Amino acid sequence: MATVVEKASENNLNFIKEGKAEAFQPKNVFYNPVQEFNRDITIAVINEFAKETIQNKNCKKVENDVDQANVELKVGVKCDNGIKILEGLSASGLRSMRFGLEIAGVKEIVTNDVSKWAVDIIDKNIEHNKLQHLVMSNLGDASMLLYQNKTEKSFDVVDLDPYGSPAQFLDAAVQAVRDGGLLCVTATDMAVLCGNAGEKCAATYGAMSVRMKCCHEEALRILLQCIETHANRYSRYIEPVISLSVDFYVRVFVKIHTGAKKVKESVTKKSMFYHCVGCGTVTLQKLGIKEPTEGNNFKFLPAHGPPVGSSCDHCNSRHVIGGPVWSDPIHSIDFIDRVLTSVSTNLQYLNTSKRISGLLTVAKEELQDIPFYYVLDDLCSTVHCSPLSLEKFNSAILNAGHKVSLSHAARNSKKTDAPSKFIWDIMRTWVKQNPIKDNRRATGSIASIILDKEIQNNISFTPHPQAIPASRNKGLVRFQPNPESNWGPKPRPSLNNEDKQKKFQGKRKHKQNTVDTKQYSCKRFKAGQCELGEECKYSHKLEECSLEDKT
């Protein structure tokens, strides 16, 4: 008897095992094993969200009777009081199969794709994994399906993992998630979000991206402000619970809430930013502020600015303006704690569980009220000095009474509430103690202008007991080695003939009427220069040639 793998090969299919699911997948369908981390952390997040949702529903029913509210949830079993999940862009449906087999407290999973051929594969995978009671396939456009379910049929969780930008689906998605529901969004167009095509970013996401060292966090904050802007149009707003920059994409998990009063505060959660093209210093400019009035009310006003002069205070270079970006916290510490507990106890079977724990621990340590970060290597490169260690840099900040943390988005990245003047004073003090050669600080250079300024703060590199973050001492995994060669974003999947015909509306099904060129004489033949003979597309008959000449 042929094995499952052999049967798949006979039908020109790949057979994939991931987590607890198995899936058939056509060989030309987009699949990237590196994205297993994306699927693993999504399962961890939705698992925790499902527990929270069902707990809240049960608590309301039994009036906070905790004993009755704590219902045991099982994976693979339909929960009548559970959550409803939509995977809008499914391809083979592997993600949905894993949802059904690895998430407890699920009522229904809708697995959608626009390709009939892909939906046939989804149906095969549903049957193979015996999930007919939980997973339902759907053939249709993702945006249209979301719009059709924006009222009483709304979803508890909507997962969007498109190829490239998710922007075209966001307007429908923020309406199709129930009040308090979870929206999971991936964006892989990092070149656009990180400033290589600012005009494209402005057109797609409504924000100007700028090339800078902290561009991966910039990408996260641009995506969050885009989702917030779409939600605000419908008196809704977002609450980011986890926002991550991973490998070649960003992944955000946000709760969608409804409330016209809270929507007004959106203007205080967004900022423009000024980026110095010389030293790389970033300065934020809030779009709006709120001031208290009588009672518990507030009034919202335009923010005061600009926060910078016509040139940079540190290196005299010009500024470029980017944004708007989301400038409020991008994580919920309480939610991260619960996910970490779940991963360490119930989800250890996940292949990327160690990386999930490492990345979320660093995200939890981040200073939540500080947008953007410095890159220590870049600071040293700007003034052409020898490397400054993590411990000494952190100690200098902590000894002065400021706060500092790592960022999950980049190696050697530093978030701090210390002003930029203090940061450059650290570098001046370091160079003073470790002089650089004169030819590395040429007159008029960025390094020379920065280092020639007087040190205004007392900098101490005395080791501070909290200089080394706990995540470093634990040796947690944040950046895993490359899993395979050519592991980055894969090419867009090719269309089959049926999908091509649908895309081009049948215009290419029949050849267009062509003109018979044999009715025209060959000018090269008349000149005695054509050597094609009967293969020439023009006529070589002398009678026709002479008749045409007479006319």
UniProtKB/TrEMBL annotation:
Residue ranges for the region (Disordered) are 463-518
Q: Which InterPro entries match?
A: SAM-dependent_MTases_sf, Trm1, tRNA_met_Trm1_C, Znf_CCCH
Gene Ontology terms: biological process: tRNA N2-guanine methylation
Zinc finger residue extent: C3H1-type: 516-543
Biased composition, class Basic residues, residue ranges: 503-512
Pfam families listed in its UniProt record: TRM
Q: Which residues does the UniProt record annotate as the domain C3H1-type?
A: 516-543
- Cellular component GO terms held in the UniProt record: nucleus
Give the protein's recorded name.
Answer: tRNA (guanine(26)-N(2))-dimethyltransferase
> Upper taxonomic classification of the species?
Eukaryota, Metazoa, Spiralia, Lophotrochozoa, Mollusca
